[in-house]
Write a structure and sequence with these properties.
The structure is a single chain. This protein has 2 domains: about 80 residues, no CATH class; about 350 residues, no CATH class. The longest helix is centred in the last third of the chain and has 26 residues. It has a two-stranded antiparallel sheet with strand order 1-2. The chain has about 425 residues and is mainly alpha-helical. The chain contains 18 helices and 2 strands. Helix content is about 55%, strand content about 0%. GO terms for molecular function: DNA binding; DNA-binding transcription factor activity, RNA polymerase II-specific; zinc ion binding. Keywords: Metal-binding, Nucleus, Transcription, Transcription regulation. It holds the Pfam family Fungal_trans.
Amino acid sequence: MLSISARLTTCVHPRYGNAVKATEYFINRAGDILHNEMYEPTLERIQAFFLLGVSEWIQGNRNRSAIHMGIAVRMANMLHLHREESYKIPENATTKEIIESESARRTFWILESQEHLYIEYNGAVAFPLSDISALLPSSEEEFAFGKVPEVRSALAGTEAANKNPDLASLPSRTLFATVVQAHNLWGQVARRAGRVARSEHEKADEVINKPWERKSNYLQLTQTLRDWEKSLPAQHHWSVWNFRGYKATFLERPYVSQVIVTRLSNIIIRRIYLDDILDFVLGRLRSDCPDPKFWSNMAFELYSNVRDLHDTFDTVCSLRLEGEDYPAILVFSIYICGSLAAYLFKWPQLCPLLASSAEPILNRSLEILGMLLPNWPIIQRWLDALQRIASPMRSQSQEEEQGLGGLNTYHFEPGLSFPSASPHPDGDLHPLPLRLN
């Protein structure tokens, strides 16, 4: 826990030098005891290895992060946390038993959903949906008071949802359930984007099906995203009022996370085709699409989502209090918005209706990333890449005929709020009922 909190605990920074060094110190201390803690699966150890993995990722140590998270995943598998029967409690269960069962359920779903945010290039799914029978977590109020919910939501594609599809779109679903569902959809989009290699003209499954064809993965995923968003409870959609409401109850982080992940999914599924869109608007692509507006419509949808995502993180950053942290996915989204704004800044014909927003979005993205850098070492490579993109844009030193040129330094890298645990008096980690905030 200290490896996570040290970077934001300013009072300890003078002792260790700065936020990065303080974090490194506690990561190293945790590393000293790893070999004694990794061979007996417990809920406490799952939480500890996951937190350590997140901390390593923030430091930019992606391999170490993946290994720590892999240990947490394997322990969760050994404890069968993906199976609903693991959470069975007697009808006369005490409040303590209900909370402990829900804590274990939340540990699994945080691990499962966050795993989608930290996926590596071509990474495999840690928990195949067909193997999962666990239902989604209860509301924060039910959890806090140890109440068993009358009905639980399910994640689409899991054994529970296949048996009862209505559970995947309950109007009464909890915020935690929406977060899990949003992260799962992001995982599908991110893995697909990671498979795309323009040099091989792979385009995922579109070697056979063009993106405008009914059976294409693109149309299926975009329709899934549309249907899922339409089914969301009103309080889970983005609005400043909803944000203020969740902030008042200390749930703004998961709320913002699911809003941003949803917008990112809509952006990246279209970002795959940005080269094709650009070739089309520059007259370099002879499309056999029967709809002459297909590519221009896709561009507008892409940049409409970029604008909406920018408005979200701009609002969140503006209302942030000193000392408050950001969800990691928000930091990644800032880079995505900035990089795509750079394309539009150079080629306004990509989306003429939204071209005027390109430069402000790019500048604001650079500003926020620079502000966050001291506490987020992993940002350095994103900031460097964005600055390399922005410099030639501003100097107008590249000619349009050069193609993507310097902009091709942008590589899609999925990557990315955090659960918590509390220190037990005997020095071990005692599993705290994992709250969304």
